[in-house]
């Protein structure tokens, strides 16, 4: 997921980066990874989003990717 691999953490620690900072960065990256996965994952309960259900699958994909491309 959105965390640091153990071997990478050991490598950074060997370079002198404090392990506390690496652990904090690893834990702070998890919510961002979950939010990004929810953005890209297909929603199963689309009844909560009437605008999305009214779009065809092709337009639904464009509606998701267009804001990501524009940086919104």
From TrEMBL:
Keywords: Membrane, Transmembrane, Transmembrane helix. It comes from the Bacteria. The chain crosses the membrane at residues 21-41. This is Putative nucleoside transporter. It comes from Escherichia coli. The lineage of its organism: Bacteria, Pseudomonadati, Pseudomonadota, Gammaproteobacteria, Enterobacterales.
């Amino acid at each position: 997921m959105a965390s640091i691999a153990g071997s990478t953490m050991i490598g950074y620690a060997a370079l002198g980066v404090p392990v506390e900072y690496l652990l904090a960065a690893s834990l702070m990256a998890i919510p961002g990874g979950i939010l990004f996965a929810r953005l890209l994952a297909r929603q199963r309960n689309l009844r909560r989003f009437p605008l999305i259900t009214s779009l065809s699958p092709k337009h639904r994909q464009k509606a998701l990717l267009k804001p990501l491309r524009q940086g919104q």
